[in-house]
Specification:
178 residues, alpha/beta, two-stranded parallel ribbon, two-stranded parallel sheet, 8 strands
């Protein structure tokens, strides 16, 4: 019920009011090999610091830009074939993890790919949201159900680990070439 959430919902409602044929796809915990995001930040910090503190009491499903692009293309085709109507849909990977668990998975995958970390994994500390204040409050639970999208498109979202693993591998390969 944050100001961010309220203004986001107001924008979605206004878009649908202005154009009733609008299809809105909501996602969360977005990452890719491009731009700034949690995966890239963790890899950078893992090389720079021996110790790291990461929030453990917020959960969600890390979702790759690649998955969003693929499912959005299917959604557009589904809309044209009338399997989907206008409205609001959720699109995230399956499963859930905390930010701390996400970071731990990133570091384990990076190390398995030969990425040199300064981080001592025994010093990857789980902290509470209260211990890491941010300008905008974040929800403790960012999970979304994608059931409607999955049923109408006859798909099943992959577990969040699948795309994270591939993204980390791609980033490590790029790093090792440089």
């Amino acid at each position: 019920n944050s100001g961010y959430g309220r203004t986001k919902l107001a924008g979605e409602e206004e878009a649908m009011r202005q154009c009733p044929r609008t299809m809105i796809i909501r996602t969360a915990w977005l990452y890719s090999t491009f731009g700034n995001n949690f995966v890239k930040t963790m890899l950078k910090l893992g090389q720079e610091r021996a110790e790291l503190r990461v929030v453990a009491d917020q959960v969600g499903a890390p979702t790759s830009a690649e998955l969003i692009a693929d499912v959005t293309a299917l959604a557009i085709a589904g809309y044209r074939q009338q399997h989907l109507t206008s409205g609001l849909y959720h699109l995230t990977a399956a499963g859930q993890v905390s930010w701390h668990g996400f970071a731990q998975f990133i570091f384990e995958e990076a190390a398995a790919c030969g990425y040199t970390l300064m981080l001592d994994m025994t010093k990857l500390q789980a902290i509470s949201t209260a211990d890491y204040p941010t300008p905008a409050s974040r929800p403790a639970n960012s999970r979304m159900t994608c059931k409607t999208l999955e049923e109408r498109l006859k798909i099943q979202m992959p577990d969040w680990t699948a795309h994270v693993r591939r993204t980390v591998e791609d980033l490590v390969k790029t790093h090792n070439k440089g």
